[in-house]
Structures are given as C-alpha cells and as structure tokens.
User: What shape does this take?
Amino acid sequence: MPVAILGTEDLDVRDIQVNSINLMGVEPLRWSYEDVATPFEPFTGKRCAYDCNRLGGDGFPDLTLKFKRTEIVDKIMKKYGSVRRDQVIVLKLKGKLKDGTRFYGEDVVIIKKPGSY
Assistant: This one.
C-alpha cells in the first residue's frame, strides 16, 4: 500500500528518521525519495473522502513508503470490527525527525471491497 509524506518549504523529508515511522502501528516495507504530490490543507482533521487533491509534484522531495496491505487491513478490522463499501477511514501515521521531534500525519482511505485484500 503506497503512502507518501509530502515535503514542504517547512519540512525537508530527508530530516525524517525513517525507521521511526508507523502507519496504524505497521512499519513500512521500503521507502524512497521522489516528488509525487502537493499537500492538501489542512494537514490534519480530515474526515471527508474528498479531503485531498490530484495535484502532482510541487518541487519539494516527498518520502514515499510502501506498507503491507494485509497488515493495514488487519489493523483497520481490529479497530472498526467491520467496514462497509465506500466507508471513509482516517489512517494515522507517526514518526520522528532525526532531531527527536515527534510528528504525526493522517490521510483518508475509501473502502472499496470490504473483506478483500
């Protein structure tokens, strides 16, 4: 499952301690740096399926991460018990910068096929 932490003028993603990152308690399988997207504001407080944009890269490097989909689905099921088609779920990501500063982020996912991986 692809995830990206988007760099900004105020956040250089190369300052992130990658081994501290987890998405709902799941660690990434692999990661890389590339410019893939433009942030959507507000950065937190998302609740709607459309709290995002389709803008491409913005000139700042982003940290792209890959997570094992089945582990994320297991965490969702443990938290929610059951899900329905088109349900919007906010996923929480946590980590630390190399200087020890903690950060968190979030994004929304839309359930398309309940019970499938």
About this structure: Residues 12 and 80 are 34 Å apart (CA to CA). The longest strand covers residues 88-97. The two ends are 10 Å apart (CA to CA).
